[in-house]
Amino acid sequence: GAVVSQHPSWVICKSGTSVKIECRSLDFQATTMFWYRQFPKQSLMLMATSNEGSKATYEQGVEKDKFLINHASLTLSTLTVTSAHPEDSSFYICSAARSSQPQHFGDGTRLSIL
Amino acid sequence: EDKVVQSPLSLVVHEGDTVTLNCSYEVTNFRSLLWYKQEKKAPTFLFMLTSSGIEKKSGRLSSILDKKELFSILNITATQTGDSAIYLCATNSGGSNYKLTFGKGTLLTVNP
Question: Any CB–CB contact under 8 A between B40 and chain A?
């Protein structure tokens, strides 16, 4: 149980385009979903927390207009990186949790902006 | 600001060795401490600890929490090359959104 699917796993695109990443909890309803960014050899950095049906809560320093989060249902959240630039290249990971239960992570999306 | 410190940052052992990974924390409104294993992709859940002194065990892995001294350890016995990974410790400090604060991780390399 507690399977989280993230798609796509890898994307390469040109500078200036927008990229959407999907995160789905496959076998449970997630009250909260989280989006992280991870740089090489570093730990996970929380970007934002998303609750179904409400606006995401962004961490300090994360631009909400740059990283759009939509949490349309209890099983789906999306992160859109708008007008992506090379400095946005990174490993993005989502996680989902039901109430106080442990967060379970998707397999991550490796984003490369040329 | 919540703080989670893991040590060592990296460790190289031989198959069959036993390793102990450390995690100390300074957290307001502590709720739980979690251990994850990260290989090439995203972290996989190992343990969640909420009470002091109660060991959690899964196969060759075990973990325990000390809420008085504010630390946790993760033990791996009879290590195998498949145990090579980054081990992440994280704390949940309450609030309505259950967000985690992660340590920097311990990179474990198990050589044959």
Answer: no
